[in-house]
Amino acid sequence: MAVTAVIAAAGSGERLGAGGPKAFVPLAGRPMIEWSIDAFRACASVASIVVAAPPGQLDELAGHPDLSVVAGGATRARSVANALAAVGTELVAIHDAARPLLTPELVEALVATLEAAPEAAGVIAATPITDTVKQAAHQSSPSGGSIDAQDVQNEPQVVERTLDRASLWAAQTPQVFRAAALRDALAGSEIGAATDEAMPVEAVGGTVLLHAAGPENLKVTTPLDLRVAEMLLAERSRR
């Protein structure tokens, strides 16, 4: 089955301190997004590539005539929904531009897994969690509202319980879905609340499979992540 690759590239890069969209931050001499584009181009199953780019950055991809470029939305989920309008294949692979160490082998393995499981709506790359995971008790922030990400970083939290890591996985991308199932799930969900595409599919009862991927398929969020990604790409080029 032919696959359309959708690259979500509209992230702000605020935590990276990039001063602009994360997908276009230089990484090993190239804009970060180009590493993912090249990986999808090397996949026999991928028929086309759609990029959801920041509205002000659409011209940045003008040098890639084989890409379809759509304007991203206010949230990652909205960006993916916009890109789905340009998808005409039965399968769609959603990928974050912030995961530049994508390999064609991982994409093809995910596609093969989904093709072999007709009852499944999708399959996602994921890695088993190796850290001990603590769940924090719900608390109010110093300002009296709910805890947000900044509060978690700045204020001590209280452990409520320790989760059983044997059943916990850290979700990654790519995430490959039957396009019709993903469209239906997004249409029936609160789209802005989804942090990955598997969430709305799970919410409507769709079966989502896990495919083990290595931790090197990392997401670049901080300056440290960027340095690690550069090191891994340099190591890969020497092989």
Please describe what this structure looks like.
This protein has a single domain (3-129, 168-237), classed as Spore Coat Polysaccharide Biosynthesis Protein SpsA, Chain A. 28% of the residues lie in helices and 24% in strands. The strands form 3 sheets. The protein has a 7-stranded mixed β-sheet with strand order 5-4-1-6-10-7-11, with helices on both faces. A two-stranded antiparallel ribbon has the order 2-3. Strand 2 and strand 3 form a beta hairpin. The two termini are 31 Å apart. It has 7 helices and 11 strands. With 239 residues, the chain is of the alpha/beta class. The mean pLDDT is 89.
Brief summary:
With 239 residues, the protein is of the alpha/beta class. The protein contains seven helices and eleven strands. The protein has a single domain (3-129, 168-237), classed as Spore Coat Polysaccharide Biosynthesis Protein SpsA, Chain A (Alpha-Beta Complex), CATH 3.90.550.
| Percent of residues in helices | 25-40%
Classify the fold: give the CATH topology. Spore Coat Polysaccharide Biosynthesis Protein SpsA, Chain A
What is Rg? 18 Å
The largest sheet, given as strand count, sense and whether it forms a barrel, is: 7 strands, mixed
Molecular shape: globular
Q: Would you tell me the structural class of the helices and strands?
A: alpha/beta
Order of helices and strands: EEEHEEHEHEEHEEHHEH
How much strand content do the residues show? 15-25%
What are the main properties of this structure?
single chain, 239 residues, alpha/beta, Spore Coat Polysaccharide Biosynthesis Protein SpsA, Chain A, 7-stranded mixed beta sheet, two-stranded antiparallel sheet, 7 helices, 11 strands
